[in-house]
Amino acid sequence: MTATQPKSKIHLLPLFALATVPLIMVLGNSMLIPILPQMQEEIGISKFQASLVITLFSVPAGIIIPLAGFLSDHYSRKVVIVPALLLYGAGGVVAGVAAWLMDNPYGVIMAGRVLQGLGAAGTAPIAMALAGDIWSGASRAKSLGIIEAANGLGKVLSPILGSLIALLFWYAAFFAFPIICIISAALVYFFVKEPKKNGQKQSLKQYVGALKKTFKAQGKWMLTAYLAGSVALFILFGVLFYISQILEEKYKVADLMRGLILSLPLLAMCSTSLITGAKIKKNMKLMKVLIVVGLALIGAPLAIAAFFDNPYILLGLLVVSGVGTGLVLPCLNTLITSAVQKEERGAVTALYGSVRFLGVAAGPPIFGALMDTPKLMFLIMAGLAAFCAVLAYFLINPGKGGGDTNPERYEKIEHERKLLTRMKARA
């Protein structure tokens, strides 16, 4: 096995190290959702201000992710991931100290959340690109499925973990971030071996030109995939925020029980992601089918939920919606990371991560604004999921013009280009 060829066999320790990155990234939002009602009460803020705890983490991440992707393509993935994790942890310290020592901590907490968001920009999307560099073919699909499952596992554990930590004091979750970020950074630094770059670095002009060619050839299906991923997470985090609020306001559910309830749809998503990643392998047509079916499973339960007020029925419907999300995300991850050569993979994957973050950022405030009209809210979201399913059905066409996402073809092109570069260098 040469340094120029991605590995086909998955080694558990590097994969475990990479999987900690999206797991920790998702803690940045999910761990705080169950404690937002308590935060509102403790520091005297409105529901909208509480939702900004999520938004001001996700928006900076969404904006900076493309820059992180370029830096990871131009230098290395690990040079971006490790400092980003440390910045993420530092933002947690800022927010935690403010909540602990200040009488009016809201502004400084928000500044800490912005720092965390800037750090998060260099985490999960770049880890996905690095996994795409290290593994190929069916192993790539499996590794990305496991990484997405780790992301889902973070979503499952984080409401419970956030509720448990809040039993100490409500802002304790902020101090958990630096601990787990340092551990993840150390794992990536010591145990993940990044494939060496071959040939000369692209100039910014060459790099932008290559990206333009990629989007000109494949823009329709890639933009559809970006939209689908963003909408899936927009709905997921919006619904989680909605459930957390009604459990607190309407049913007076305690923090820990609220965290357990919130974890059920996420557990469905996590387990489905793991199975999906293991089964899809290199089957692009199957991925398209699962994306369309998954989006339908996200939307249909929401349409039904519009006509029921029973919280148990609502929870069951949201579990089905979680299964749909678990079908969609691993397929999108594999399609997007396989669609381009390694030199542009960081940017393309980062743009995908950017729209995912922006979807997460938009969910809580929009769902919060629509909470007084839940029937309308659920019907709008169901319609949005259905719209994405229709777009995916018509525009994601593996193997056809404008949608050729065959990873073996791109790996062959990439390998041939590297051989040509080496031959030119020897000449």
TrEMBL record:
Keyword 4Fe-4S appears in the UniProt entry: no
Membrane topology: Multi-pass membrane protein
GO terms of molecular function: transmembrane transporter activity
GO cellular component terms attached to this protein's record: plasma membrane
Chief location: membrane
Sequence ranges assigned to domain Major facilitator superfamily (MFS) profile in this UniProt record: 14-400
TM stretches of this protein: 12-36, 48-72, 79-102, 168-192, 221-244, 256-277, 289-308, 314-336, 348-370, 376-396
Coiled-coil boundaries: none
Name used for this protein in its record: MFS transporter
